[in-house]
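Tutorial, part two.
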Amino acid sequence: MDPPNIGVALRKLVYFVAVTLDGFIAAPDGSFDFFSLEPDVAPYLVAEWPQTLPTFTHAQLGVASPAAGRFDTVLMGRVTYEPGLKLGYTSPYDHLKQYVFSRSLTPAEYPGVEIVSGDPTAFVRRLKAQPGRDIWLCGGGQLAGQLLDDVDELVLKLNPVVVGSGIPLVDRGFDPHRFALTSTRPFDSGVVVLRYTRHAGGPG
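Running the prediction step on this input gives:
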């Protein structure tokens, strides 16, 4: 792949995900249906983050087609991808370029997405250097752990629920990364959207 042009800013990797108060993004089996789309949060997502809503929900939620926004690409781990498969959706974010990181899925069986079996870090760094809009990392914990050094922003939909166990926000060894809070958006339902950017001091 071609190197980036000098003076052109790299695309940002944004980890946008729902999370519990105790730091989990899914149940142990990868399901996340315990995160409800609260009535007071839905209009905010439609207005501010429509591309993070699955394509099959757009008509119901009143999302314009194609959905506008800062992203043109979404990254998923296999466990994050599988709940949609169980519902029959092989291309859950059809309005974006979809990459699923897996060593077990057969590419020919999932034509709506591109299966990536190689090193996620090297792949994403090449992707960030290519022309395009920002890149959405929607899960899961292991993939986020591998890509944490390259995450530029965190957008956390903090839900007022404690689950006790499950898939963590980031699954990796102890390795502190500092982020700076840039905005908060509380809702009457108890959900709070927290936005962070990588701390100027670097990964640590």
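The radius of gyration is 17 Å. In part three we will examine how such features are distributed along the chain.
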